[in-house]
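Protocol step 4 of 5: obtain the predicted structure for the target chain.
Materials: sequence only (see below). No template structures provided, no constraints applied. The aim of this step is simply to have a reference model before the mutagenesis design in step 5. Sequence pasted as it appears in the construct record:
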Amino acid sequence: MAAAPDPAPRTREQRRRDTAHRLAHDVDLWVATASADGAPYLVPLSFDWDGRTVLLATSATSPTGRNLAATRTTRLALGELRDVVLVDGSVEVLALDELDAATTDRFVRRSGFDPRADASFRWFLVRPTQVQAWREADELAGRVLMRDGLWLH
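Step 4 output (structure tokens):
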């Protein structure tokens, strides 16, 4: 059961700190994609955050892999129902050997999963274009923390 949220709305600075903490410490997130004909798809995947991009790995032949490659866009969701972070981003598809060892080793350590063992997998690098975070209705007005890839102040 989730803890009750703090009754006072957070400042933008506090939301940014909370979002940075979640990105740095959570291991899994929800990945929302859509096919070319608009059919939605939602799956949980492990991820790594390097402070600028979200790194995902999945099979290129899975619905998520096909959708990410075709549309080059996604929405990621972290957190709980009453403490959510949404990340909209553009997607770059990379072969398993296109990332340096330090980056891929960090992903493996964080997730406990090594996608390099399956040739059908690809890396999907998500560059955030918009980030939103809120707990309750009183935080909706200032929920956008990043717009057009730039953190708001």
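Step 4 remarks: The first strand starts at residue 28 and ends at 34. Residues 12-25 form the longest helix (14 residues).
Proceed to step 5.
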